[in-house]
Amino acid sequence: MNFDTGNTGFMLVAASLVMLMTPGLAFFYGGLVGRKNVLAIMIQSFLSMGWTSVIWFICGYSMCFSGDVGGVIGNLKHAFMLGVSSTDVLPGNNIPLFVFVAYQMMFAIITPALITGAFTNRVRFVPYMVFLTVWLLFVYFPMVHMIWGGGILQRWGVLDFAGGIVVHAIAGMAALASVFYVGKRRVVEKGPHSIPLVALGTGLLWFGWYGFNAGSELKVDGVTAQAFLNTDTAASFAAVTWLIMAWIFEKKPKFLGLLTGSIAGLATITPAAGYVSLQVSVLIGIVAGIVCYGAINLKNRLHWDDALDVWGVHGVGGFLGIVMLGLFATTAINANGANGLFYGNSAFFVKQLVAGVVCSLYAFLFSYVALAIINKITPVRVGLHEEEMGLDASEHGEEAYLAD
């Protein structure tokens, strides 16, 4: 088979960019926590790079993209990557199927890692590994199959260009469920121990997001370019909008606000990146900055201890992006997409809304129940002494910063 070398090269780069996002997330989260919990939160992201890859090889790819069982999940035909070879081609794109396997694996790696920011400083390592495993098997893999793998939602006409539902909404709602189940931190930290580390993580995430969104076209064409520029534009407008909101309500132009705003914009444009115009991406960025900023303030007033604002940024941002896609999608941008409500297709908007609500609700309920069951087997939460000591020392026997 003669592969398209241009598309293949592009997709290898895109997969590498998405891989880089997980270390970026580790730095982003690592800077936001206190000095005694840096390694504990970072290892949760890096663990996903290893353990999720193992599960992806064993059964993940097959459950997402092989066959169909009731429109909800794939089968195990390609478990252990049996029947998949380096000469196989991804239909319609002329790239090696292995490249697609690797690209999708990077999405599977980062999605559960997003959840960890919500329960930082409180959850033991072994229960986290168990939760990571069952969440992939019963939430992430079915969502991928239903929306991207030929399942029921894809056949119904639901669109999600790069993971508004599949990644951000379900991770954000799982994060909220974990906050409710695990409870509040008993040791209150003073705040982020290293905003420069957060900035480094943000830069890596923003850079990697070009592979995340533009790469989701799976080839190089006009939609790829559209998704690339939409991604940067929405992130930029959201960052500036958040900065202005913080300046108004907190009386200072906060660097942390600028950084957080950019991530909110990136999460919100993700489902719509290849389906909307550049002008709409501006609107999406502005709305993301306002709505996600408001969501975090609401969370604070309700005293939900979502430590690193996973729900407010990813859960709300991802869902908002699905709604905006339902409003503003147009086949003038992507002939393989759909027209949204403002282009005369109210049915598509309803489908997006229903899919967003149902998938988010399922992710929330499953995550809560899964943690409750895991807790029956092994305690999920660390004890007060371990929390006071910090999870770096109590769980891992290491310290990020040694005393002089």
Topology:
Blueprint lengths: L4 H28 L5 H28 L23 E2 L4 E2 H19 L9 H24 L3 H5 L7 H19 L12 H20 L7 H29 L4 H15 L8 H25 L7 H19 L17 H32 L6 H6 L1 H6 L8
Antiparallel strand pairs: 1-2
Descriptive report:
It is a single chain. By secondary structure, the protein is mainly alpha-helical. The protein has one domain: Ammonium transporter AmtB like domains (Ammonium transporter fold, Orthogonal Bundle), CATH 1.10.3430.10. Helices cover 68% and strands 1% of the residues. The protein has a two-stranded antiparallel ribbon with strand order 1-2.
Q: Strand order of the main beta sheet, please?
A: 1-2
Report the order of strands and helices.
Answer: HHEEHHHHHHHHHHHH
Number of domains: 1
Determine Rg (CA atoms, Å): 20 Å
According to CATH, what is the class? Mainly Alpha
CATH superfamily: Ammonium transporter AmtB like domains
Low-confidence stretches: none
Helix proportion of residues, in percent? 55-70%
Largest sheet properties: 2 strands, antiparallel
Please give the CATH architecture: Orthogonal Bundle
Overall average residue pLDDT: 96
CATH structural fold name: Ammonium transporter fold
